[in-house]
User: Fold Transcriptional regulator from Roseibium limicola.
Amino acid sequence: MLKKLLKGLFSSSAPTAEKQDVKPEVHNGFQIFVEPRQNGSQWQIAGRIEKAFDDETRSHAFLRADTMGSRDEAAEHTLRKAKLLIDQQGDAIFN
Assistant:
């Protein structure tokens, strides 16, 4: 019982990202990496938006509280949210 308690105290309960090679989708010059995170039996909307500038590539990671029942559904919503962020904020997303 003590071992179980200690394990609970020192282990992370943070959502985990689905690790796989993610091919980005390009939208208005930005690359969108769809990276939903599993949180228990649900999936959270999560991803990364990148854009190459003259001297560097800038990145903006995002995680939403929204949860979905499947990875595919979360991936679809992640892509939609990323495109909306790009359309609304443009380059200001990196500030």
The mean pLDDT is 86. The first strand starts at residue 16 and ends at 17.
